[in-house]
Amino acid sequence: MLSKNEIVAALKQLIDPQRVLSEPEDIVTYSYDGTPHLTGAPAAIVHPVNTQEISNLVKWAYENEVPVVPRGSGTGLSGGSVPIQGGIVLSTVRMDRILEIDEENLTLLAEPGVITGNLAAEAAKRGLFYPPDPGSMKISTIGGNVVENSGGLRCLKYGVTEDYVLGLEVVLPDGEIFWTGSKSKKDVAGYNLKKLLVSSEGTLGIVTKVLLRLIPPPAATKTLLAFFPDMVSAGRAVAGIIAGKIIPCTLEFLDHVTINCVEDYSQIGLPRESGGLLLIQTDGHPAQVDEEAEKIRTICIEHGATEVRVAQTPEEGEKLAQARRMALASLARRKPTTILEDATVPRSKVPEMLAFIEQVRDKYQLEIGTFGHAGDGNLHPTCLTDERDTEEMERVEQAFDEIFKKAIQLGGTVTGEHGVGCVKSKYLPMMVGETGIKVMRRIKQIFDPTGVLNPGKIFFDEKKEETVSA
Asked: What angle do CA 121, 127, 128 make, to 5 degrees?
């Protein structure tokens, strides 16, 4: 591999030298993402402003076998944008334009650096709706959402990012540029490369444009907050709601630990004695919304809810929803290190999985608060710890090892929306089997024969598990 000075000098020949960063403070800033206790040291950081610049940069890196790590806002939680093998961090945040909103075809074309919340807001100004709403949507970029296939609070009813991606412009590892997909509602021409690239975690290509599907917004929304004596009762209520042929747009939960952290942080009047909380939102035609809200309230009471609060106005609904949206920030205030994990099980297995997480918490004497998407079985057990405490961190790793294996045993997955990255790569073979890994490696080899694009992600390599600096 070339030296750091050689890499920096070459990059400054390819783009404006002011958009090539290599000072120590820059290296530190781009050495991590949202994943705790994981760092890597790039030789340089580049900020291209168009597709051709990315093509030129990637082609040079390909020819010189220099690793390239694509990065958006760096909010990832599986190490996907950490440069664990050094090389170049390629940031797309300066490619932040919405290029088109097509109201006839209900589509939006954007560059990868557009903040997802801003994108949704621009669509709303035209009376249109972009449903995916990952928890990081106020700071994460649409390019990152695409390659991680982000979910969010509304995905039970509306689906995840891939359900709204119609087309992609992509720079391949050798610098070639190609487009996949179209504005057409129906398109089955050839292999579905668009679907393959979504959730590829930046290992197959770099997304430079995203064509998204928009929909009309719901006419009305109603929010409920239901409190239960324990999470088992809350889980049964979730099953009752779905069995009642109701699909809310949001069906979220907080456990006892998280409820108390939220109340410590925000003091919004949550009952501290509650064992569990459900945040439920139904949307659609006003008459349907009122009918569904009343049915949901009744089902919750029948399953042991001690209290059900029903918002009477959108403003009141937003206030109730704050309890869920504040979960991570509230938990993070408790200890120096917050490890937010991501395990998903079939919806019917949520109560069993929650009970298992509590057993693991007690077994390893850890503080774990759990919240997440009850409607789709996506759980976020969050350990409050201190990464400076080596002994406790070992217990944390053992605890999550058991949690992930249990999720697989219950027919679930080790990640519902955060991605594999390098944090969960050792669990992937348990999910897809040896043959599945072979097929994935062949796909990677076809796209990226020299392995320069986001190396060390998805596929586990014991020899390169430790951080590598440039």
From this structure: 70
Which position has the token pair 């969050």?
382
pLDDT per position as a tens digit, 157-211: 999 999 999 999 999 999 999 999 999 989 999 999 999 999 999 999 999 999 9
Contacts of 269 (CB under 8 A, 6+ apart): 263
Cβ neighbours for 402, distance < 8 A, ≥ 6 positions apart:
360
Q: Is the pLDDT of residue 468 over 60?
A: no
SS3 20: strand
CB 47 within 8 A of CB 93: yes
- Smallest Cα–Cα separation from 105: which of 219, 207, 211? 211
Identify the weakest region by mean pLDDT among 51-60, 346-355, 439-448.
346-355
Strands 88-91 and 44-46, bridge-based pairing: parallel
Distance separating alpha carbons of residues 277 and 229, to the nearest angstrom: 9
- What does DSSP say about strands 337-340 and 220-228: parallel, antiparallel, or unpaired? unpaired
Domains parsed from the chain with CATH numbers: 98-213 (3.30.465.10), 220-328 (3.30.70.3450), 335-409 (3.30.70.2740)
Each residue of 353-400: pLDDT tens digit? Answer: 999 999 999 999 999 999 999 999 999 999 999 999 999 999 999 999
Whether 276 contacts 230, CB under 8 Å = yes
Place of tokens 């076809």: 446
Question: What are the tens digits of pLDDT across the range 21-33?
Answer: 999 999 999 999 9
CA–CA gap between residue 88 and residue 68 (Å, rounded): 5
Burial class (CB in 10 A: 0-12, 13-18, 19+), 468: middle
Across-strand partners of 141?
Answer: 115
Helices (H), 326-427: 327-332, 350-363, 390-409
CA angle in degrees (0–180, nearest 5) for 232-236-242:
150
Alpha helices in 37-192 (DSSP H): 51-64, 116-125, 142-148, 155-158
Q: In what order do the strands lie in the sheet with 165-171?
A: 98-102, 107-110, 206-213, 165-171, 177-181
